[in-house]
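== Item description ==
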Amino acid sequence: MHRSETATAVSRRQHLADSGMGFTGLAMGAMLAGESSVQAAESTPPAALPRAKSVIWVFLSGGYSHMETFDPKPALNRYAGKTYSETPFPNPVESPLHKERFRSVPSAEINVRDVYPTIYPMQVGFERHGESGIAVTDWWPHLSRCVDDISFVRNMWTTDNDHAAENQIHTGRHRLDETQPSIGAWCSYGLGNLNENLPRFVVLGGPTRTDTRESIDSYYLGPQFAGVPLQLDPANPLKFGVRQPGHTAEQQAREFALLNSLNRLTAEQYPRDQQLQARIQSYELAFRMQSAVPDAVSLQDETQETQQLYGLDDSATQVAGQRLLAARRMVERGVRFVQVFPSAYGTWDSHQKLQENHSKMCRSIDQPIAGLLQDLKRRGLMDEVTVVFCTEFGRTPGLEERSGGTTGRDHHPNGFTVWLAGAGIRRGYVHGETDELGYHALGDAHYVTDLHATVLHLLGLNGAALEIPGRRRLDIDRGRVISDILT
């Protein structure tokens, strides 16, 4: 084939892709290079035998208060209204940890966040639950019954004190630094397929808006490893993934066959063009996804009892329940990494009216997330799937006083809580702690990429060895496995 003929073939393929099959770009973005990804997985030294096949990563946007959720601090009630210096505890603002783990974008002179001196009491009570006796606040009546299946990590920290921390917990980088691929993208890059009809990395409910795209992106790994957002509408689960009116399945099949033939003709001329080989596979995947994806998001196939378990019969829990039930259906079908946003952007951000906001938001997710754990357990999937439950940072122990505030807490990167459950995770366990007032993560505390390293390790990947030629990762990007929470 002459160069002009090759150009003609390429232009034909482009014309066909643009006229009714543009959604193949989604497949290309999901699985562009099944071959190259397998090579990546084979060339990546394993950390150990994998303990998990898949991950469900649940992210709550806005920053839930660790003290009003999973790290109750009764000292806040004892010293409510007093300043830090009026308690018997060391003033946390004067601790060297404050500067070490705090990287404000505005200058320190004008940024008052995190240093509000007046202690704000807990806005909810708490009790100890389960055989493990783990303290959880009263806003989690359903999840509190699952504590014996969970490992809580109470000494997490990050550096961004604004909502760019939503990207940071997924990429490991502060917004002032070079962006890195997200944790889901690294998992997609390092692992092979379990189901060739579905993407490895699926996103439900997000990204929450355009400036949080980084949280599911793959950057220099290539678009084939980025997350693929799906909608929970079986009639239209993929944007641009529906045939045009009057365009039959038979016609589309013929077009795909023609594209495949043209691509393979070009591949004979360029046998080492991995992008072209990947493109051939992506078109094939795009066609297969049309039947596999609607089936995966068809929640009506579930029994009424299962739908009620996730709270689909209650308007307050329906959205989160649908997304978490769909996540279970995805991992059941072999999706490697499912990133779930059960609530909208910033909805946990409680600068004011924390009690009103958190009681409402906890109710929206409590039954669905407990339902997910119970459902995984009864289906035997707790030995195959690891669940991660996290947010971007905690909330300040001190009362936020900006604009005359009297009922809320500000952003707090210095200490917060996440939890994990399922495959490879210790059950009924608490790892780490914050100080008596919930200010600083103590001991061998964990930056957000330690969570990444732990997930990669559970999937059998050596996070420290994941590397791209020409892209030097820093030690902080690699993280350290939180081995204490592993079985």
Confidence is low (pLDDT under 50) at residues 1-43. The chain has two domains: 1-31+242-296, 49-232+303-485. DSSP finds 14 helices and 13 strands in the chain. Residues 354-378 form the longest helix (25 residues).
